[in-house]
Write a structure and sequence with these properties.
Number of helices of chain A: 16
Strand order of the largest sheet of chain B: 6-7-8-3-9-10
Shape of chain A: globular
Helix content of chain A: 55-70%
Structural class of chain A: mainly alpha
Distance between the termini of chain A: 64 Å
Number of strands of chain B: 14
Largest sheet of chain A: none
Low-confidence stretches of chain B: none
Radius of gyration of chain B: 23 Å
Oligomer: heterodimer
Number of helices of chain B: 11
Number of domains of chain A: 2
Order of helices and strands of chain A: HHHHHHHHHHHHHHHH
Largest sheet of chain B: 6 strands, mixed
Structural class of chain B: alpha/beta
Largest interface: A-B, 54 and 66 residues
Strand content of chain A: under 5%
Chain lengths: 349, 319
């Protein structure tokens, strides 16, 4: 058989090229054939030529049909929720950055200092110190609504880190098209994003509150009488944690929805929380009027919570005004969120 | 035989206040591949959003894959694979997880979505790159990932918005091949919005041409080309006089140097050209039917609509 006959009958032409020989001495360049084909490297032109050298069928494009069934709406919403929440713990879901993950871990640990101290003083049998750290009305309030360090260093910063890119990055990356070209409606999208942030915040605030309360029962051997006495306080505090998480989330997501980056919503949320409180504190100090605290989200929620839990009131104006303020703040934030989410585009921004 | 329609609309109108974005469109798109063309502001984006069931119509009605666009948007979007023109990928996610997530958003079980994501990425040529972060991808790889996202649930219709946008020659070739394979081998339909006439002509059998929200043309490309049938002649000696003579005989002539394109008015056109050449003593060295490209067709249609344009680039710019 002649050489030309061999060529004609051979489906794949062998390549006699030094660069194509792979052996122990071959330098590892990290250049794959697909990289070359897609010209992802700096040396695009040369790469493309290497890839186009006939060297046999390495890629056969076969369309594979799929005839499975698609799950209903709740499963699609669950996918969004899972994507955001599992991203904190596992790879393959929403990529939260390392500082956010580390800070959440730090806050969870730091939020349980009261658990550790109550356990410590309970177990060493020091009643005076245990009374300071153990479960009581003021300590339950303090676990959720305590200003320093929880509501200045922990929860607002966690909320800011969580909401920062939650919607703004969908706008800047164009990933909103990924949602809205699927059978995901705007309400489901916003609701699942909201739930994702609120649930993570709730896990930190109310999760550690539950640990605080139930560990005290189990380790200190509290009886039914004590439980019946304190459980309403615990539930009121739990509701307060929900109001706090809801308020931080709604304001934060509203800011995220009007932005295209992570920084503005995050810093904006902290600025609103701290700025309004600082201004109200200055007015209170100068004119002895606490009314301006109703513009501070933290103080408005704290005032409502004081009324709910039944601790000593630290504000002079009626708590109902603070309740109205909380409702209005959340209403405005949710209106802004809904409005901006409805403007997210599928085709182009 | 009646062809199965994947998209049909009757008097479909969408207005934004006084601005009419889509004006009484009667569109019939059959199974297979269809190109969506139109100048900037023609209403292509509005049309795509309407087909996805994302915006409310002002009047008229439409169906995609048999589902009403006014009331069954969710069902439509479950059966459509939409590939957006612009970036729609999270740059910090691996391609495999990005594609899997897009499947989950349609309603696929997570494990099945992951399995299909592997298949879809293999199909679009990213099998070896599937665990790389999207941020490290070239434009071609990002486009391929978007296509994989659109194909993961094996949709009946793929809407590809400028699929070859920003691609180099090789990646473009691969993208167009993939779309062709999806139509021919996968038996799926493709609606492709593009401003690149060559790409549309390469992949699509049909076109829909929109202009100022109105339907300018629709149908098979080969059928539409018949409206621009011309005879190309290469003459030697007095081309100017030849042009004049042919024009005097009522023929439509376009001349560039010694090459002329004469409007085809039936079988008698050949004899008439030869007769004109004989009358003035000009040699006709070559004469053949000119096969119009989609670009030519577009220019003819635009000319009939009253636009003086030299190339499609003057008008087309994006969906």
């Amino acid at each position: 058989m002649s050489e030309s006959d061999t060529d004609a009958n051979t489906p794949f032409e062998p390549v006699e090229s030094k660069e194509e020989t792979f052996g122990a001495e071959t330098p590892v360049t990290g250049q794959t054939k697909m990289q070359a084909a897609w010209s992802a490297s700096d040396d695009d032109a040369n790469s493309a030529q290497v890839a186009s050298v006939p060297q046999g069928q390495i890629f056969e494009q076969i369309y594979k049909p799929w005839e499975g069934t698609l799950n209903p709406r709740w499963m699609r919403n669950w996918a969004i929720l899972r994507h955001h929440i599992l991203g904190i713990f596992a790879k393959g879901h929403r990529p939260w950055n390392l500082p956010t993950k580390l800070f959440i871990f730090f806050v969870i640990i730091a939020s349980m200092t009261d658990v550790a101290l109550a356990l410590l003083f309970g177990m060493i049998g020091e009643p005076t110190l245990y009374d300071i750290w153990g479960v009581n009305r003021d300590n339950l309030y303090g676990h959720v609504m305590g200003f320093f360090p929880r509501n200045i260093l922990y929860y607002p910063i966690v909320a800011a880190l969580l909401v920062g890119g939650m919607i703004s990055e969908d706008r800047s990356h164009g990933t909103s098209a990924l949602y809205f070209s699927r059978p995901i409606n705007r309400f489901d999208y916003a609701a699942m994003k909201f739930l994702s942030v609120a649930l993570i915040l709730l896990f930190i605030i109310n999760g550690t509150l539950m640990i605080y309360y139930f560990v005290d029962i189990l380790v200190m051997g509290k009886g039914w009488a004590w439980i019946i006495d304190t459980f309403p306080m615990f539930m009121a505090t739990f509701v307060c944690g929900m109001i706090l998480a809801f308020t931080y989330t709604s304001i934060g997501l509203a800011l995220s929805s009007i932005s295209r980056g992570r920084f503005f919503p995050a810093i904006g949320l902290i600025a609103i929380l701290m700025g309004t409180r600082s201004m109200a504190a200055i007015i209170d100090a100068l004119f002895d009027k606490s009314l301006l605290y109703i513009i501070s989200p933290y103080d408005a929620v704290a005032h409502v919570c004081q009324a709910l839990i039944g601790t000593e009131m630290t504000y002079e104006h009626p708590w109902v005004w603070s309740l109205i303020s909380v409702v209005i703040m959340n209403g405005l934030a949710l209106y802004l969120l809904a409005n901006r989410v409805s403007s997210l585009e599928v085709t182009r921004e | 035989m009646v062809e199965e329609l994947i998209i049909e609309s009757t008097a479909l109108t969408k207005s934004y206040g006084p601005h009419v974005a889509l004006d009484s469109l009667d569109i019939r798109i059959e199974r297979g591949s269809t190109g969506l063309l139109g100048p900037n502001g023609a209403g292509k984006s509005t049309f795509l959003k309407t087909m996805l069931g994302l915006i409310q119509l002002t009047s008229g009605e439409g169906k995609v894959l048999g589902f009403d666009i006014r009331t069954q948007g969710d069902q439509i979007r479950q059966r459509i694979g939409y590939m957006p023109e612009y970036d729609a990928l999270n740059p910090n996610m691996d391609a495999i997880h990005q594609v899997r997530y897009s499947g989950e958003l349609i309603g696929m079980n997570p494990n099945i979505a992951l399995q299909r994501a592997h298949q879809a990425l293999e199909y679009v040529g990213l099998g070896e790159q599937r665990y790389r972060e999207v941020s490290s991808f070239s434009t071609g790889m990002k486009q391929a990932t978007k296509l994989a996202c659109a194909l993961i649930h094996d949709p009946a219709l793929i809407i590809a918005d400028e699929p070859s946008n920003g691609l180099d020659a090789q990646a473009r070739e691969f993208m167009l091949n993939t779309l062709e394979t999806t139509v021919n081998q996968g038996q799926r339909s493709v609606l492709m919005a593009s401003h690149l006439m060559d790409d549309v002509e390469r992949v699509c059998e049909n076109i829909v041409l929109l202009h100022k929200g109105k339907l300018a043309a629709q149908g098979k490309i080969d059928d539409l080309k018949a409206i621009d049938k011309e005879i190309e002649i290469h003459v030697w000696g007095s081309p100017g006089k030849m042009e004049e003579t042919l024009t005097d005989r009522g023929m439509k002539v376009r001349r560039e140097g010694r090459v002329m394109r004469v409007g085809h008015n039936g079988e008698g056109s050949y004899n008439e050209i030869l007769q004109a050449a004989a009358d003035i003593g000009t040699q006709v060295r070559r004469m053949h039917d000119h096969e119009a490209s989609l670009e030519d067709l577009f220019l003819v249609i635009m000319e009939r609509l009253g636009h003086d344009v030299k190339t499609s680039d003057d008008l087309l710019g994006g969906a």
